[in-house]
Amino acid sequence: MICLDCETYETALHSVSKIMRIPREELRNHLTSTNYEALYEEHQFELPFEEFVLQTVCNKFHVSDFRIDLIYWFHLSRTMHPEWFSEKGILSLREMESLLHADIETLRQQMPNPPHYTCRGTTYRMLHDSSRQGPFAMLVKDVAFCHDEIGDHDYLSIPECVEDMGAGIAKLFYDNSKSVIVKFHAVPQFEAEAYLENVLCYLYCALNQKDLFVECNTCYEAPFHRILPDDIDYVKEVLENAQVSYYWRKYD
Q: What's the distance, CA 130 to chain centroid?
C-alpha cells in the first residue's frame, strides 16, 4: 500500500520518494539546490506556483504516473473531552455544536455571574451551509504551529465556534480544555497530483528553512462524514511549549 504521511518533513520526503519513485536523496538534493521562486519568476509561468513545482519535478525525474492508496491527516482541536475522539470519532460541525453548547452551559452554571453568549460569525454561517460541515483536517502537521505564517485560524488555541461566542466564554472554555492533534487515515478524495503539489511546496520550504505559505498544505473536508474511531491512529495533547504527548494511541 502506498501511503502519504506528512507528520514530519522526513516522513513526507519518504512518502513522496515512494509515490513518485524518485530516490530520496536525489529528491532532497534537487529541492535544496533549485531556486523555485527565481525560476518561476524568470519564466513567468501562468501555472500556479504549486503546480509549477510538481511539473518541474516530474520533468526532471521523468515521472508521468503515480498513485496514493491512503493518506494520513491531522485534525486540530481544543476540547474539554480528548477521550471522545477514541470513543466517538471526529464529528461534523453540526454534531459537535450540541455537545459543545452543553459543555458551555455546564461551565456557566459554575460561575456566580456567567457571561452571556450568542453564536454568530464564521461558525454560524458554516452551520447553515450544508456544504461546509466537516470534519476538517490538515495534510501537513507542521501547519498546526505556523498559522500566522499562512494566515489561518489557530485551531489549537480556540475553536472558531467558541471564539464567536465572545471573550468571556472563550476564556472560560480555554481554561477548562486541552489542545490536541488527532491523526487519522482515509482514502484519497482526489487524484494524487492534488496532494503532491502541496507536499512538494512544503518540502521545498522545510528543507530550505523557508517560511511555510498557504500552498504548502491542503485540507480534508468530508461533509457530514464522521471519522470513525477505527480510522484514528492517535490523539496527542499539545502542551504550551508546542511539545506533544500521547493521550491515546490505537495500539496502546
A: 21
3-state SS of the chain is: CCEECCCCHHHHHHHHHHHHCCCHHHHHHHHHHCCHHHHHHHHCCCCCHHHHHHHHHHHHHCCCCCCCCEEEEEEEEEECCCCHHHHHCECCHHHHHHHHHHHHHHHHCCCCCCCCCCCCHHHHHHHCCCCCCCCEEECCHHHHHCHHHHCCCCCCCCCHHHHCCCHHHHHHHHHCCEEEEEEEEECCCCCCHHHHHHHHHHHHHHHCCCCCCHHHCCEEECCCCCECHHHEEEEEEECCCCCEEEEEECCC
CA–CA gap between residue 15 and residue 20 (Å, rounded): 9
pLDDT tens-digit map of 127-155 = 555 555 668 999 999 999 988 888 888 88
Q: Rounded to an integer, what distance in angstroms lies between the CA atom of residue 12 and that of residue 68? A: 13
157-197 confidence digits (pLDDT tens): 888 878 877 777 888 888 999 999 999 999 999 999 999 99
Q: Please choose, from the candidates 72, 222, 76, the residue with its C-alpha nearest in 3D space to the C-alpha of residue 146.
A: 76
